Amino acid sequence: MEGDSLSAASVSKDLETRFVGQRVIYYRSLTSTMEVARREAQQGAAEGTVILADEQTAGRGRLKRAWLSPRGNIALSIILYPSLANLPSLIMLASLAVVHSIEAATGLRSQIKWPNDVLINGRKVCGILIESDVQGNTVKYSIIGIGINVNLRLADYPEILPIAASLSEELGRNISRLSVIRCLLVAVERLYLALSAGGSIYEEWRDSMVTLGQRVRVKTDQAIYEGVAESVTSDGSLLLRGLDGSLNKIVAGDVTLRE
Ligand code: BTN
Description:
Elements: H1 8-12, E1 24-30, H2 33-42, E2 50-56, E3 74-80, H3 90-106, E4 111-113, E5 117-120, E6 123-135, E7 138-148, H4 167-171, H5 177-196, H6 202-207, E8 215-219, E9 224-232, E10 238-242, E11 247-250, E12 254-257
Parallel strand pairs: 1-2
Antiparallel strand pairs: 2-3, 3-7, 4-5, 5-6, 6-7, 8-9, 8-12, 9-10, 10-11
Helix pairs in contact: 3-5
The chain binds biotin.
């Protein structure tokens, strides 16, 4: 299942945004869109520039993991120049934009697993990686990398079969990647402009989170925590009620939902 063909022009043409997706750099095959996006951002690329690849040969995930990125999926990075105050909200923005675009393009409902995995029926359909260059109080750039399993036959990838979902398998038909991408870029800009105007997207992000109220295991760089995911804070952290009753604030980590 490879799905529709992509090009820079087909993404940008008549796109109803001011800047996100108005410049698209498209590759048939690339190591990682994050690498090209970083080079572009360092050279002062226009805000909202999108790097899009049909296939990545060295896709990167969070926590130094690899990200499987065959043809038929969506792999893109968006360059933004947010304020330092808005930096923690980018994870909320990206995951909410994905949830909105999947629903707008396919009608499928998805949910967020802290901090920013997007799940359908408990399986991961999208991963998000945010890389920023912060020097002192200045954000030089931020790159939002988004990978969505769109036209993916999961039986071909036994390594992710138990934990992954794809839009095509959920609906039993191929999906237009172009329509998901275009909805996504519109949603990113809308949320980004809302943030820049001083609005908050925290409540919506919190309310879309499947993790809250659940028994979880959280793996961080330092330790493994077990407990109940009680809430999330407006800076994006997870509040975990430990089995001993203590409350831990976790800034970054990987959550496994427990039975
Ligand atoms: C994760 O869940 O671990 C994050 C996965 C992020 C994957 C996307 S695909 C587009 C961009 N390019 C990459 O190499 N990674 C991100």
